[in-house]
Structure formats: structure tokens, C-alpha cells
Sequence to fold (269 residues):
Amino acid sequence: MPAPQMALQLYSVRHLLETDRQHTLAQISALGLRTVEVYDFVGSIDSLPAALREAGLTARTGHAGLLSPDASSADGQDAQWEETFQAARALGLESVFDPFVAPERWVAERDVAATADLLNRAAEAAAAHGLTVGYHNHSQEFVQRIKGVSAFEFFAGLLDPRVTLEIDLYWAAVGGNDPVSLLERLGSRVEALHIKDGAVIDDPFFSGLPFDPADTGQVAPGEGRIPLDAALRSARHARWAVIEFDHYDGDVLDGIAAAVRYLHAKGIR
Fold:
């Protein structure tokens, strides 16, 4: 299989984007990145496509809420998806990943099954726009077990074949997994990886305490405890290797530059 392509999740530079979006995008481009993964993009669709073009960047994947339990009706849910997928097409995206479903929805079998059903229905709506959908994990999805497997793997087993997964290697490890074995079990379902390194902390999402990204201990790829090298070798079907920092002590652009060098050394560009 060909090597995945490199991208940067723009959430990594969210604070810089708030200060000066165009300058930040130009800095990202200067680091050798040509593709980014967008987040919360529906509200900025009037200006974001032009801003990316000006910086010489494209986006092919993005994060957006697809699995809200607060939709007041099926029609309301359909309207939300329609708005999201129209924005995704305007940006030139190929895949939209839901980035977070709350911990309490990963406990009971019926709730996990309902989330899978909702994502399967989103896949049908996305297909009408020439898009695919998927799910991006954190750690809360792996804490509970259902029918002998983690809630996440139970969920994955219920998904329509069109639905893909974006595996955040750092958070998968925090959830108690060997990321390499997890990738081998999930196989061709995995479309993208989040390349993220650091300490293996306890799952913070079931603690009931406010989550502070500064507590994650994230570092440049290759400097932490996550087996990124082996994970990249195991993810034979992944199309994207997405750099992300939830938090970085110091200048995050330095961390991104180190991540670019790490991926370049693996033949990923």
C-alpha cells in the first residue's frame, strides 16, 4: 500500500488562528505542509476556502458534529447534516469525522448501538454529496466493555461498510489499548491516523473533573511513549497521517515542525 499523506489538524493552532488566521496559515505552509484537516468549519465557510487557497493549502478531511443527541427531530438532524455536507463540499473535503461523543453514551449497549445507527444514517446522507463520514476517537470509548470487547470495537462492528475511522494513536493508548494491535483488528476500516505522542495518562473523561489539555503531556512525535513507528507500519490502509497537538508546552509551531520532520523521515509527505 502507498504511504499515507501528511496533514495538520488546525485545532493544534486554534489560539494562533484566533489572533491572525492568514499569518498562521502562511506559517503552516512554510513548514512544508500542503494539506490541513479543518474543524468547526461550518461557521467559517464564507471565508475559510479563500484563506486556505491564499496560503497554498487544501483540506480533504474535517471534524464536525454529526452525532448530536439534541436534534429535536429527524428533520432537524437531516437539516444539520445537509448544512455540514454542503460546507464540506465547498471546502473540497472528502471525509467528515465526528470528533467526540460524550462518555455517558459509551456505557450501555443500547446507547452505543444508537450512536452507530446515527452514524450509519449520516453516511447515507453524506453519500448524496459524494462524501464519506467516520468517527475520531478519544479515550472514553474504550473504558467500558460490551460483549467481551471495548465499547469502541463493539461500535465499529455495527458500522456500515462505508463508515471509516480516524484513530488518534495517543488517545487510543490512553484508553488502555496497544495501538498497534488495535489497528490490526480494525484493518481496512481505518482511513486516517492522528499522529500524536506523549505520556500514557489515565482516561480523563470519566473522572468527572474538568479536562485540561495541558495535563496530557504531549510532545513531538518520537519523544513520547506511543509506538508511532509500529502503528504507521500496521495501518496499511490509512490514507492520512494527521499531525495534532491538543496542547504543546512551548511554541506549537516548533512542535509541528518536529512532527513534519518525523513524518518526512518515514517517507510521508
